[in-house]
Amino acid sequence: MVNTIRQPARMAVLVLSFSGALLVLGKAIVVPKAAETQPSYALPATVPLSDWQTASSESLQPMPEAIAGQAYQYRHSDQSLKVELRYMTGDGDVNRFLFVHTPIRQENNRLVLKYQPSIGFYGVLPYQGRAYLSACMNPRGESTVTAQQFVQNLRTHDLIPARLLPWLTGQQPLLDRRCLWTLMSVPVTQADSATLNKAYKTLETAWFSWYRWWQPNFPPT
Q1: Which long-range contacts (CB under 8 A, 24 or more apart) does 41-45 make?
Q2: Would you tell me which of 86, 135, 137, 154 could form a disulfide with 69, CB atoms 3.0–4.6 Å apart?
Q3: Could you tell me which residues are beta bridge partners of residue 79?
Q4: How far, in Å, are 96, 116, 123 from residue 106 at the CA level?
Q5: Mind listing the pLDDT tens digit for each residue in 6-27?
Q6: Which residues, listed in sequence order, are joined to residue 131 by a DSSP beta bridge?
Q7: Residues 26-48: pLDDT tens digits?
């Protein structure tokens, strides 16, 4: 009796597996390979930030991994805040981004990872009179800093049944490797721990507001 029940079940699994393989093969044959070009997108000139007023905004110079880039200057009383935002594709490795695309370079090994529930991972570090905060905002899931976190986020939020059909029909990639790489900084007068901790607190408050605005406003595919 048990074997009689198991045989149809096994057959159903085999049929489903075979059908899935045929769909993938059909997609590979019928759907042409997408051109290896970056999508075109312009980041907004202004982004509201709680307790901060926009002072200026300008486009950043193009670079290979970035779809677009924008620099924002904010002010609050006598404080200033700089935010560089780059719409990236790739491995989501913030340490590598800092080394390759900023003057911080080798100092990226001073990046200290932190975590905020419902927002995700971010990193902070000091460099030449400024305190920095950096992270990648992902289309789905929480923010990440390391390549490992980025990949784990992809596996958790992209490898799901709901994304299979759009992938098979060529509407979107199975793994969405986009991220909004954010680099925030404020000036610091001293490099002592008390001064840096105060600066990090300012950056964290701004980052949480920044993240919450971008989550529903993430660039479309």
Answers
A1: 41/67, 41/68, 41/87, 41/219, 42/68, 43/68, 43/69, 43/70, 43/85, 43/87, 43/219, 44/70, 45/70
A2: 86
A3: 76
A4: 10, 26, 15
A5: 454 444 434 444 444 344 434 4
A6: 126, 186
A7: 443 333 333 344 557 899 999 99
